Amino acid sequence: MANEAVIVEKLGEVKGGGVRYTCADANAISKGTLLWFSDPKTISGAEVKPLNSVAAPAAGIANTAKEASDGQVTLGVDTDGIYDLLHNGGANITAGQLVKLSGQNMIAPITLAVDIVSGLVLGKALEDSDGTAAKTIQVKLVML
Q1: What's the whole-model pTM score?
Q2: Of 48, 78, 108, which one is at a domain's C-terminal end?
């Protein structure tokens, strides 16, 4: 996997706000992978479901690695902290703007209110990105 999130600072009473989710044994998930979830409390890496065609609610960031078919069916997920995340260009991101998952370990700005209501918010940008080229920016996770 590429473009994994990099921890800047874990926050919260339980550092990182760790939550344990169910995952498929067959999936390989790298530490730092941006994750989405589905019912019942099951996560997958952003690369598993193409988010440019089907929106999915953000779950957080994998805080450990998981190898494919290793017998592991749960994974710890960080839901609180500041991370370096990749914005691959496109629409501008302004500091303070909410961001969502966008493909393989990348983010994009929230531009529609329905994205917020649908649970797509991954966090709040702490830096600007003008969208002309790929840029890593700091994001404060905000699980709504």
Answers
A1: 0.87
A2: 78
